[in-house]
Amino acid sequence: MDQRQQIKNALQLCIDKRKDELHALSWDIWSRPELAGEETRAHDRLVHFLSQDDPAWTVQSCYKLPTAFRASWGPVGGGAGYPVLNVAFLCEYDALPGMGHACGHNLIAEVGVAAAAGLKAALQNQTELPVPVTITVLGTPAEEDIGGKIELIKAGAFADIDLVFMAHPAQQDASFLPCVALDEVSVKYYGKASHASAYPWDGVNALDAAVLAYNNISVLRQQLKPEWRIHGVIKHGGVKPNIIPAYTELNFYLRTPLLKELCDLKAKAEACFRAAAVATGCQVEMTYPPNTFCNILPNATLANLYEMNGKELGIQFPKEPANFSGSTDFGNVSVIVPGIHPFFYICTNALNHTEEYAEAAGGEKAQLYTLRTAKALAMTAVDVVCCPEVLRQVREDFSLAKLKQEK
Fold first, then answer.
1. Which of 271, 287, 303 is the last residue of a domain?
2. CA 54 – CA 280 distance, rounded (Å)
3. Fewer CB atoms inside 10 Å of the end CB: C or N, the chain?
4. pTM to 2 decimals?
C-alpha cells in the first residue's frame, strides 16, 4: 500500500471514531440558529471544539471579524527550505431569518472541521511529504448577508493560504455546480404624504412608484437571458390606507452566470426603477452594498480528484447535474486561491431554503452523507499534498480559469 492510500485510510478512521462528537457539534449549531453576523454561540462552540481537540492547534477567536475564527496546525513534513503549503477548510454557520438552518450551514461547519481533523490525524506522523504542510480551519460568518469571506479577503485572511476546500449541502452530489455572480440593490422612493380621500391630488404616491418598479422588472424578465435572474420584495409600502405613502423601499437581487454580465443587468434594472420615479413624480435613490459575490471559478483537477475519491466512498455523481442558480461568497475566494466547493446530498428531496430542508439538516440521516463528504474533501487534499505534479496542475487550472473569467 502506497503512502497516499495509507494517509487516506488513516483519516477515514479518525473521522469514523469521532462521528458522535462531530454530530453533537453540528446539532448544537443547528438547534440554536443565529443570523449572519450574530453567530456568537456557533463561533464559541467551534473554537472550543478545536481548542479541546489538540493543544497543537493554534486557535484565534474573533479573527478579523467578531464571529470569525482561525485555527492552524503544522507545518509537518517536507524538506528544509521548501515553502509551506497551507491547506484551508472553510466553515459556515449562519442561519436564515425565520427558517433556521434551511441551507444546512451547520453541516458545512461539520464538514470543514471533520475534514481538517481527519487530515491532521493522518499527517501528524508523516515526515516524508514532498513539501511541508500546514492545515487551517477558517470560520467564515455572514455568508447569507454581507459575505463574510469577502470581508476576510479584504482583511488579508487568505494571504497565506494556498488551497481552499468546503462543501455545501444540496439535493444531489456534484463536484461542481456553477454558482452565479450576485449583486443586491436597495431602491427607495420619496414622494409626498397627503390625505388619500380628501386631498389625493396634493400627494405624490411613493407606493405607486414601488408597484410600477416591481411590474417594470416583471416585464423586463421576458427580455433577459435565460440564465439571468432578478427577484425582490417590497420592504416598506406605506403606513396607513388613508395616507398617501411618502416613502417606500424595495430590495432586489440580481444574478448572472459571469461577474462581467452583472453590469448589463444592473443597467436594465436601474432603467426600470428610474422610469417608475418619472411616471409618479417621486425621487428615487438606489444603493448597493459594498460586496458583490463573484461566480465560482471551476478547477477541473480538484473536481476530478474529488469525484474519484467520492466514488471510492460510495458517492454517486449524476452524469448531468441539475442546474443551480444560487450564489456564494466562496466565488470571491475562488478568484484569489485555487479551491473546490462541491455539493452533497443529505438524504432528502426537500429544497434548500425550506422548512423541510431545515429539519433534514438537523437529522441523524444526514450524518452518513456529511461525514462521507468530509472524507472525500480530505482525501482530495491528500492527493494534492503528496504529489507535486498534481499541485502544479491545480495551480495551472486556476490560472487558466482566471484568464477565461477576465476575457
1. 287
2. 64
3. C
4. 0.92
